[in-house]
Amino acid sequence: MGKPQVKKLAIVAALCGLLICSSAQAKTFVGVLWPMFGPLPAIGLVELAAELKMMPDVEVKTYLHQEWPSLVDDLASQPPGTHTVVVGYSLGANSSVFVANKSKYVDLIIALQPSMLSWDPPVTGKVGRMIEVYNPNPWMTFGGMGSRKLIGENIEYIANNDSHPGAQFNSDFRTLVKTEIAKLTADNRLETAQTQAPKPVKLAQLSRPAATKPEEHQPGDLAAKGNLQIADARMPTSVKPERAAEKRPMHEQRDLAAKGVQIRVQIADAETPTSLKLEQAPEEPPKQKASDPTAFLDQLSSSVNSGDLSVQRGLTVEDMKDYAERAYHRSRADLMVTASE
Predict the structure, then answer these.
(1) What's the rounded Cα separation, in Å, for the pair 208 and 246?
(2) Got the DSSP string for 267-293?
(3) Mean pLDDT of each 10-residue bin along the chain, 341 residues long
(4) Which of 144, 187, 316, 320 gives 20 to 30 Å between its CA and that of 134?
(5) Which has the closest alpha carbon to 134: 178, 183, 101, 94?
(6) Are residues 249 and 135 in the same domain?
(7) Residue 332 lies in domain
(8) Is residue 215 in a domain?
């Protein structure tokens, strides 16, 4: 690729960048209309135009009062988003009415002491805001050169006591013009920032926790239940039956208590030595003397009547012989003889 083609591409890229920047960066366009005889009798307005050119994002262009059609064309050629301002002094203030009526839309018009000696058409165009500064006393403005009160629906009137040549040097007038233009420039910056800023992501909806359903549980609830289960698993076995018993009915608790006592007694008996058992065993009722035959027969009859013969010891011949010897104090030989007789 040759050098001429590279230069052409660079120029095209630069032009495209300028077009993109100009469309993205909105500005404020200010058209200044001179009075009769141009800028020579309007030194104060010349100074104001120089101050406006120093403001950021502000473009200023001046016109003779009879060149108002050129101003209309320049306003129509501004890129979209540009705010438009018209400042006119004396006959230039009168010409601002023609600019308003011939333009599609003007954001702001500031008219300083329009003349009564010139044309007086009403304002019929679309104007965002229109401010007129005038002296209602025509004798102070050389027979009414700065005392014309414009006619229109959207006009704000500010009366002053300045002479016609001295009105352009009034600090209040200059501050008014610069303040209103600064407002429009701030609006331009805000609109540009809003168009270039990315759309915010709705993080609040993404981070919002879902509503808990009745059957669902929060993580804290699950953790609490897990701690309880771990505590129950680590609890000694002897404690658990007591907790279970507290939840049982009263009659079941009594039955379990009785069974527990029996089990404990059996365990204690199993662990107690035999010698201690004999000492702690309750005393049996005193046995009746063996020499009492009536007691022996009563014991024998009671055993027969109760059907507990399988438990008592069986009666043998030796027992009867022993009993006879003890009862009658005789030997077994005598007893055998007596029995044979």
Answers:
(1) 44
(2) HHHHHS-HHHHHHHSPPPPPPPPTT-H
(3) 60 54 67 96 96 96 97 96 97 97 97 92 95 96 94 94 96 96 82 57 48 49 50 49 51 61 54 47 49 56 49 64 70 52 46
(4) 187
(5) 94
(6) no
(7) 291-298+314-341
(8) no
